[in-house]
Structure prediction request, 318 residues.
Amino acid sequence: MKKKIFITQKLVGNIESFLEKHGFIVETFEKDRIITKNELIKRASDTDALICLLSNKIDREVIDNLKKCKIIANYAVGYNNIDVEYAKSKNIVVTNTPEVLTDATADIAVALILACARRFHEGNKMMRQGKFKGWKPSLLLGYDIKDKTIGIIGAGRIGSEAAIRMKAFKTKIIYYSRSRNYKLEKKTNAKRVSLNYLLKNADIISIHVPLTEKTYHMLNKENLSLLKESAIVVNTSRGEVVEEKFLIELLKKNKIFAAGFDVYENEPNVNPELLKLNNVFLLPHIGSATFETRTKMALLAAQNVAEVLKGNKPLTPV
Prediction:
């Protein structure tokens, strides 16, 4: 009997054809929305493999209903949406899609930094509202990037690439990470520092840590108060890493200069206070959203599934 694969939403690229060529039956959730838990359980209960999104909560209840499943392939580098340990206890392999989205996400981090430093949101809003009346010496003054100190929180693949890109702007790089990154130090002359030192001394902070129990609200009321009034904070990792309400208070009171968001604490819900602020730049979680990257992510997820269902080791196990 052919093995069945269920995909929780239509992905970029034709991975259905790739999987069917390997002899698998592929079913995809047809609607252009997030599948509900009940729908997921009903559709995937007899599947041999599940390809899911970061927005799909794969908890114990879902896992208990995956009666035949051998692999859960997450279409993301993060996997905080999956109860990984419980899946392992059920002999279900969990995989993710690292490396293929590194460059695209690092690019977005840099884009947010530039947008915040040079007040792109306010400029775009001014133009669209027809309020530009001509050049003025003090119109929308921002900050140079050159000679600033860039603080990288989480010097993994994406954080390192963001740092390398920012070094090209003639900046100083400092970073906070669980372990020392010798390659990053060699390429950028970066210095590893404590989190509090970074928050107190960096002009621009870019967040690149995964969401874990230890990183949940890593940036909170206590340490966010260390930021300079001229500081810029950019988050392209996970919204829950930042205690968002306290960052919003700093932005409202102009205690920091600006912030750029690609992720949110209660995603997909966005705190309505953010929508009122001119000193924020908001993106809808598009860090990996390029044709090339999303296609590679889908293919890697499919390759992981194919290998496991053939009895081989996965390419990128969690």
Notes: The radius of gyration is 21 Å. The mean pLDDT is 97. The first strand starts at residue 4 and ends at 7.
